[in-house]
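dude i think i finally got it to work??
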Amino acid sequence: MKATISLDSLWMTIQSLSLNNQKWLSNKLLENIREKEEETEYISKEEILAGIKSGLEDVKAGRTQSFDDFLKELDNDAV
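look at this
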């Protein structure tokens, strides 16, 4: 059986918990957030700038493709 509750109801439930249970819950939430942050990959500013530079060099050298070809490539990569 699935139950749907509003965030307001959830907040009221959390507020009704004892302080120890609220601390436990907050630690669990922070632990979950930290795990997700560790899984997130970041691109450095240097990598972004290098990619832009490379793209500009490709355009100047005439190494381009049509938008339709780009979309086809994108669809093929998604599979």
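The mean pLDDT is 91.
im so relieved honestly
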